[in-house]
Amino acid sequence: MAYWGMAMANTSNRERAKGFIEKALAHKDGATKREARYLDALHAYHDAAQDDRRGRNQKYTEALEEIVLEHPDDLEAKAFLCLQIWLNDRAGIPVSSYLAADALLGEVFEARPLHPSHHYRIHLWDRKRPEKALASAALCGQSAPGVAHMWHMPGHIYSKLKRYDDAAWQQEASARVDHAQMMRDRVLPDRIHNFAHNNEWLIRNLVNLGRASDAIDLACNMTELPRHPEHNHFDKNGSARYGRRRLFETLSRFEMWDELLAYSETPYLGHVENLPEQVQRLRFVGRACFQSDRISRGEEQIAHLERMLADRESRRDEAVEKVAAEADEELSAGDLKKAQDRARQPFSSDITTIGKALDELRGHQAVLAGDAEAALDLFGKSGGVEAEFLVRAESAAGMTEAALKRARENVKKHEREAVPLAALVDALWTAGVREEAREQFQVLRRTARSADLDTKIMERLRPVAESLEIEGDWREGEPAGDVGDRPALDSLGPFRWAPGPASPWTLTDVDGKERSLADYRGRPVVVIFYLGSGCLHCVEQLQSFAPLTEKFRESGISLLAVSTDTPDSLAMSHLVYGDDPFPFPLVSDDTLEVFRKYRVYDDFEEKPLHGTFLIDGEGLIRWHDVSYEPFNRPEFLLEEASRLLEQSEAQVRTGAE
Quick one: which of 371, 543, 546, 611 has the most CB atoms within 10 Å? Predict the structure, then answer.
């Protein structure tokens, strides 16, 4: 049954799951009749034809149902059956009765109120009737408190029901549990697939609540986290990209123009070698400039975007002309057009992105020129301009009815969100519709009960509060009472991820000299774990890092490699490199003791793995990569190490850490 469990845990890796269930079947003679049914059911599922998705899901469902019928007290069979009924929808088998599936889970919860299949009920009702899963949302995290995803899932329900306070609490709980696991098990943040998504959604919910400072703090933290060429980079939706995007959006949404411009000169929102990110930066910087009367600097952003657009259009036209010049004379006009369209395609996305940014910034110019109609048309074409900004633009242009209509529609679309409601109150008050403004303000007091009141959008409402004879803090409201018995957030894990300490070690080099991690105290070191001179991939890795030894040293970073070879065999690595002395120390860990300490070891397969670690001068692991293959991007690591170490020094100087 342990092999059955491993097969269940590898559902998304079909070949591995098949291997495990076949191992299980080899021991079937020792299984009970009930256990044998579980084995047969899962074997049939994985043994079915790859393209018969509907058929194998249907058979698996029927097999689980047979187990429930024969063993009505088997809670796990009922839970798995309900999960499968929901999963079947992906295989083209619609859920015939949500209530019937929910009733099955009800039997499980009657026997075990904290059974973790609360997770399944949330998925079952998430898109259908989220309110039907409120009871499970209150208990899901508590049913498996060490699993971050179990705290995250109730956030789906609370977000769907516009209960953003509760959604944010759940997402913070999820992040804390993730942090605890990552710091305990030495896992980089974006190696947990749901981590970045959870945190960027938490930022959005903090914005919904009006908690600008917390949203900015978390967005900054996401940009600070270690980056990786596969798991966290600007071409992928990970912490780096999400954090940067949410930081721009939050600063803009709360009209923090000076802060946005200041951040744009730092690594948080500075220039990066990624065109969409460059365009995003120019667009938001231009927006901030025009909104803070830095007109000439705003026009500089337009000029930069125009040069980028001209460059992409020129390269596109050259590609199209090249196709025409090299085309076979017998090529039909239709085929030539298709070939030219294919040549245009690689440039179309960039050109569209740049064009939309230009539309917005030219819209700001039109506002300054007093042409509100042209400005609104340009803003509409650009997309991505907040409705609250458009409301203010229409109000300023005397388009009162249009502004109020847009503000009311925005509140209806974004129910129970603080910023749209604050914008409506402001628009109503500015338009002289005072009674409705006061009514909506009373709603806002509860909606924004945890909002920051020192943001511009909230400060503009001070006259409304004063008209109601409310002095000081005008927020009100109490937490919901149907969220279960929540633990203290600090008990789940730390608020932010932090690098953990590297285990000490002392090993012998090729000359028999003892070297230890303590030798590098006060200066950072990259430690490479490799599988000896007999591993060709490891040799390639060492040969990639070796030529950059001096560049690492110039950055204040030493290099060292730990081998599975014996001290005597280390000489082979030197010989493989060539006639010159190897440029950084190689040490032996033939007992694999240090490999195990650093979790560079597969306990299941009982084999060492490849690992690369950046350890700072305080002995903290700032970055690492552990895999079945060696990390062979020394240039990336050098750049990332410099960023992380510089960031660390800045945090220490400012007391941020």
Answer: 611
The H-or-E segment that residue 563 falls in is strand 558-563
Which of 475, 538, 450, 464 has the alpha carbon at shortest distance from 213?
Answer: 450
Q: For residue 4, give the nearest of 33, 36, 32, 30 by alpha carbon.
A: 36
Token digits for 439? 């009514």
Dig out the tokens for 38 from the structure.
């579980």
Among 82, 220, 289, 538, the one annotated catalytic:
538
Query: Could you identify the residue written with the tokens 């954090």?
Result: 243
Strands 558-563 and 525-530: parallel
Is 538 catalytic? The answer is yes
Q: What is the mean pLDDT of the segment spanning 358-369?
A: 96
586: which strand partners?
561
- Residue 345 pLDDT level (bands cut at 50, 70, 90): very high
> What's the rounded Cα separation, in Å, for the pair 128 and 207?
26
Read off the tokens for 559: 């290099």
**Amino acid sitting at position 657:** E
Mean pLDDT, range 474-502, rounded to an integer: 94
Beta bridge partners of 623: 614
| Half-sphere CA count of 178, side-chain side, radius 13 A | 26
What one-character DSSP code corresponds to residue 612? E
Tell how far CA 499 is from the center of its chain.
18
How many Cβ atoms sit within 10 Å of the Cβ of residue 218?
A: 24
d(CA 496, CA 567) in angstroms, rounded, equals: 41
Which of 28, 14, 98 lies closest to 56, judged by CA? 14
d(CA 160, CA 130): 7
Structure tokens at 347: 């440039």
CA distance 388 to 397: 14
Output the pLDDT for position 330. 80
Q: What are phi and psi of 451, to 5 degrees?
A: -75, 155
Sign of CA dihedral 646, 651, 653, 657: negative
Instruction: Name which of 593, 641, 589, 586 is nearest 617 in CA terms.
Output: 641
Q: What is the DSSP string of 255-278?
A: T-HHHHHHHTTSTTTS--S-HHHH
Q: Which among 421, 370, 416, 419 has a CA at the least distance from the CA of 393? A: 370
As a whole number of angstroms, the distance between CA 539 and CA 581 comes to 15
Beta-strand pair 586-588/506-509: antiparallel
**Per-residue model confidence as pLDDT tens digits over 370-410:** 999 999 999 999 999 999 999 999 999 999 999 999 999 99
**Do 207 and 215 meet the contact criterion of CB atoms below 8 Å apart?**
yes
Q: Is the pLDDT of residue 654 over 50?
A: no
Backbone angles phi, psi at 613, to 5 degrees: -130, 140
Cα gap 4→18, rounded to integer Å: 10
State residue 189 phi and psi, 5-degree precision: -45, -50
Element (H, E) at 623: strand 621-627
Buried b (16+ CB within 10 A) or exposed e, 153-185: bbbbbbbbbebbbbbbbbbbbbbbbbbbbbbee
Give 420's Cβ-side CA count (13 Å radius).
16
